[in-house]
Amino acid sequence: MSNWTPPNVVAVLDPAYPQDELIYAELGLTVVCEPADEQWVLKRVDGPLSLINPQGLMQRLDFTEGKSRHRTREPGHGAAPLRKALGVASFEKRRLRKPCVVDATGGWGQDAWLMASMGCDVILIEQHPLVHAVLSSSLDIAKLDDQCKETCERITLLNADACEMLSNLETDVVYLDPMYPHRVRKKADSKKGMQILQTLLPPANENLSGALLDAALFTAAQRVVVKRPKGADRLPASQPFTGQTIEIQSPNTRYDIYLRPTG
Fold this sequence. Notes:
Blueprint (H helix, E strand, L loop, with lengths): L8 E3 L8 H8 L12 E5 L4 E4 L5 E2 L6 H8 L6 H7 L1 H8 L4 E4 L6 H8 L3 E5 L3 H14 L6 H5 L1 E4 L3 H4 L7 E4 L15 H9 L5 H14 L3 E7 L14 E6 L3 E7 L4
Helix pairs in contact: 2-5
């Protein structure tokens, strides 16, 4: 049994963004001037909403700088395995367009941004309201940047349960990057974004991830792509998949691909 309990999160209102008071109210957060030592904080930091844990570890997203901006300038750079897993070249050849992708496990949106920078239209689903709020504010800021605006506009962000939402969506590809169980999480544990997610969200559950795979296989028109750590087992689906399955390897990651027959 897990002893996990959700962290105690409060908000700090920036006078320059009075509209955030409504966001905090919708999230059910108490607005404080000085948070207590044990409290997590949601507040504006140099523009976007950011989440800070009691140790001072901050998750701040800015798609206009760093790797995200580099990916905008050089679409697909360093992402050959993901591009191949999504079938981008195949879609361009057969349908003269990039695939539409549903990223059903949004997280901090880095993979969605990479896919959008390749030219894919991406529906990004994030269930946790705090993670969604951080993503939403960061994407709003990216829309104001001339170089990032086009990439940002390819992303549609939804706050929803992906298992319930997938049946209502039409797409070419469903992309899943479920939280890895701690037993297979090693080097990635050092990344601050993952540390924050692992505390903010319940422990990874392979059965729940398998249910999401079931929903994706029911929904996707062409393929489902599941990102897994190298050496990890495949996600457990409730029924055997009758289509073609292939794998694409990268140094630390494996993409499990479920292909539907094409007519």
